[in-house]
Write a structure and sequence with these properties.
By secondary structure, the protein is of the alpha/beta class. It is built from 18 helices and 14 strands. The strands form three sheets. Strands 7, 8, 9, 10, 11, 13 and 14 form a seven-stranded mixed sheet that branches. β4 and β5 form a beta hairpin. The longest helix is centred in the last third of the chain and has 17 residues. The chain starts with a helix and ends in a 10-residue tail after the last helix.
């Protein structure tokens, strides 16, 4: 199809990914064991992708030090390696290399879409019961698939918003836009008065584009996007209907009206934040998790504001993808003799005094652990946090990339800029998504994977023991 040619030739460079890094850590052998085993200590192995926020590593190290103090004779070895986007490959590589990892910290999406279906994650349903009341209501929902809990959320619930230079808006007499027409007028004024790019997107990172589709598709489906995707993945409807096509065409309007230009296709997160902080752009669309990094580069230069994705379909409420991102799961290739240590650490890491610094490093908007306060000690931050909680958070639905498989997400991510720049049509895009799904089904994909597991498969993900409560 045309889309395959365009994506292969035109977008390969834009969305090329680096060499995948395997999960680090020493392979243990019968002769040598781990360093801790040689010294007579028990060792708890914690792994995850490289930490992304200042102070995050230190917060984990402080929790590990406290755990060692409370459990004499136990060592905690932490190994952060690889990127956020390479987690599935890193964990699989660690398993094949017969490494031991007792707890792994990563994003919830890869757990839902890849690791749990691949029997990489232990069923934590019974393990976490003694600690359920430590989580903010609804937070464990993002860790639950097929009525089983596969991880625990140690982070902040995120969603998507437009960030903007509020100081510049005030200077130009601009109000937060509620509709696409209002946003287009705002961008027109910014172009005329400031001669800068109104909206600059981190478009060289393919993973950010599906957030746009989640917004427009929520509107074209009349707020039934999650239900429609679940029906699509279950084979009950196709993905090449008018609703899907219109969702792509609405995104194309941002390109057609000049709100987004080709500069966004070659801009990464650092470039986007730099342009925003230097007032070379006025607006960008991103996750609430980005606020800490944006605030750091902006400093006191100007005040930051946020507004919701604009209404593009009359009479339909805007909805935004959301869920608690950073999670902790138990790999099925853990040392099951360490299950008591694993759950003791879970108990410690869900105490607000230790979860707090980890969550706060990312600038928590809606923390997952009770007793951890949302960021917002200064007046400017308070306005931002209040706006998110009073408005954006009221319209959160599940991230679609937590529902559909990664192969579908990849096609959506690549199709959006291709449609936006006119290299393919919206119809080409939805047909490619539909054909990708059909191919996955022939290869054995099943949305409700848990419903057909054998007793042997369930045994693989079931803990050999359920330790006593350490609460």
């Amino acid at each position: 199809m045309k889309i395959r040619k365009i994506l292969a030739l035109g977008l390969a460079v834009v969305f090329a990914v680096g060499t995948l890094a395997g999960c680090g850590g020493k392979e243990e052998t019968a002769e040598t064991g781990s360093e801790g085993e040689n010294s007579g200590d028990r060792v708890l192995h914690i792994g995850g992708h490289t930490r992304m926020y200042p102070g995050e590593e230190e917060a984990w190290e402080a929790a590990a030090a406290q755990f060692e103090e409370e459990n004499p004779g136990v060592k905690v070895e932490i190994n952060w390696q690889g990127s956020f986007d390479d987690v599935a490959e890193s964990v699989q590589a660690a398993k094949l290399a017969k490494e031991t990892i007792d707890l792994y910290s990563c994003g919830a999406r890869v757990i839902q879409n890849s690791l749990a279906p691949a029997q990489i994650c232990m069923d934590m349903t019974d393990l976490v019961k003694p600690y359920e009341d430590r989580f903010v209501e609804g937070m464990l929902d993002s860790a639950t698939v097929g009525e089983k809990v596969w991880s625990i959320p140690i982070g902040s619930s995120g969603t998507c918003s437009f960030y903007y230079n509020k100081t510049m808006f005030d200077e130009l007499g601009l109000e937060e836009p509620a509709s696409f027409e209002e946003l287009a007028e705002v961008c027109k004024v910014i172009k005329e008065k400031k001669n800068i790019t109104p909206i600059l997107q981190q478009g060289s990172l393919a993973t950010y584009w599906p957030m746009w589709f989640m917004e427009t598709y929520a509107q074209t489906t009349g707020n039934q996007s999650v239900e429609n995707v679940e029906a699509f993945l279950s084979g009950e409807r196709t993905f090449d209907t008018e609703e899907e096509t219109e969702a792509f065409e609405l995104i194309k309007q941002f390109f057609d009206e000049g709100l987004i230009d080709s500069n966004s296709l070659n801009t990464d997160s650092d470039g986007m934040r730099a342009a925003f902080s230097q007032e070379k752009s006025a607006i960008f669309f991103g996750g609430t998790w980005e606020y800490t990094n944006v605030e750091e580069v902006v400093g006191d230069s100007f005040e930051i504001g946020v507004f919701e994705f604009p209404s593009m379909v009359e009479g339909v409420q805007a909805q935004h993808g959301g869920g608690c991102g950073t999670s902790l799961f138990i790999p099925t290739f853990c040392n099951q003799e360490n299950m008591d240590l694993i759950m003791k650490f879970v108990e410690l890491i869900t105490r607000p005094e230790y979860a707090g610094p980890i969550i706060e490093a990312a600038g928590p908007i809606i923390p997952s652990i009770k007793g951890v306060e949302a960021q917002g000690s200064t007046e400017g931050e308070s306005n931002f946090i209040q706006d998110i909680n009073d408005n954006h958070a009221q319209h959160i639905i599940t991230y679609l990339d937590w529902v559909w498989p990664s192969e579908i997400n990849d096609v959506v991510a690549q199709a959006i800029p291709a449609v936006g720049t006119g290299n393919i049509s919206a119809q080409d895009a939805v047909e490619e998504i539909q054909s990708t799904y059909e191919r996955l089904v022939t290869e054995g994909y099943q949305y409700d994977w848990w419903s057909t597991w054998t007793d042997e498969q369930w045994e693989t993900v079931t803990p050999s023991t359920i330790p006593e409560s350490y609460a």
